[in-house]
Amino acid sequence: MKRTVEEHATRFDESAAEYDEAQDSTEYKACASLVVDHARDGLTGEETVLDLGCGTGAIGLALAADAGRVLGRDISEGMMEQAREKAAAAGLENVAFEYGEFRDPQVAEPVDVVVSNFAMHHLSDGEKREAIEVIADLGARRFVLGDVMFFGEPDPEEPFYSPEVDDPSTVGVLADALTDSGFALTAVEMVHEQVGVLVAERAV
Ligand SMILES: C[S@@+](CC[C@H](N)C(=O)[O-])C[C@H]1O[C@@H](n2cnc3c(N)ncnc32)[C@H](O)[C@@H]1O
After folding, report:
1. Residue 35 near residue 63, CB atoms below 8 Å
2. Total structural domains within the chain
3. Which residues of 52-63 are buried (b: 16+ CB within 10 A; e: fewer)?
4. CA of 55, closest atom in ligand 1
5. DSSP 152
6. Strand ranges (DSSP E) for the chain?
7. Which of 67, 86, 172, 178 is the most exposed place for a label (fewest CB within 10 A)?
8. What is the pLDDT along the chain (204 residues), one digit of tens a residue?
9. What would you report as the CA-atom Rg of the chain, rounded to the nearest whole angstrom?
10. CATH at residue 74
11. How many whole angstroms from 131 Cα to the centroid of ligand 1?
């Protein structure tokens, strides 16, 4: 991580009120939409969905109508306050947003599907590997990861990658970490050379 967890939390607390309005890029919208579609596939309305790095709830809230329960976890109280307000305004009662870090999501109940969008790239390769092992240990049958990731050479001149705060991995590093943790990669969607969606299913 290029910053500490606390520094990232403060950074997002400070921009939480304007965050949703700023997410107007075609690539962010396409990535979020793909994550929701892949996560929704096969949901029966009974499942527990965990949204890691949930922010203001873009993914978790979109899945709430199709899931039994949505748990949102994030390190920024300011971002989660926005998510809670949106849930209340939409009358959603099956969602809960609480503090949790990728490698310690503070989830005690069984989880069926884990999602994460535009958040894991704050972790280093090794930290992502630890987080993916924690996700695998939660027993989820599917993990849908949308994020900044490198399909080619990292290019700070291109959008979505600010080296001073971001620490994205290559698609290869992510694929290795997922398969080493017992997942099989069932879909790879390239949204941009630096943005993609990986769908991982439990191999056994
Ligand atoms: C760019 S926002 C994405 C929010 C949301 N998933 C979306 O798609 O709009 C990144 C989020 O990741 C959270 N985050 C950053 N580092 C984290 C960590 N180590 N553990 C959990 N959440 C983290 C931030 O607080 C922020 O809310």
Report:
1. no
2. 1
3. bbbbbbbbbbbb
4. 27
5. S
6. 48-52, 69-74, 95-99, 113-117, 142-150, 169-170, 183-192, 195-202
7. 172
8. 889 999 999 999 999 999 999 999 999 999 999 999 999 999 999 999 999 999 999 999 999 999 999 999 999 999 999 999 999 999 999 999 999 999 999 999 999 999 999 999 999 999 999 999 999 999 999 999 999 999 999 989 888 998 999 999 999 999 999 999 999 999 999 999 999 999 999 986
9. 15
10. 3.40.50.150
11. 13
Distance, CA of 79 to CA of 144 (rounded, Å)? 21
Rounded distance, CA 67 to CA 179, Å? Answer: 26
Ligand 1 mutation target, pool 4, 6, 70, 74, most atoms within 8 A of CB: 74
Q: Quickly tell me which residue has 């924690």 as its tokens.
A: 134
- Say how many Å lie between the CA of residue 57 and the centre of ligand 1: 10
Q: How far out from the chain centre does Cα 164 lie?
A: 20
What CA–CA distance (Å, rounded) separates 144 from 50?
10
pTM here is 0.97
Residue closest via CA to ligand 1's atom 20 equals: 101
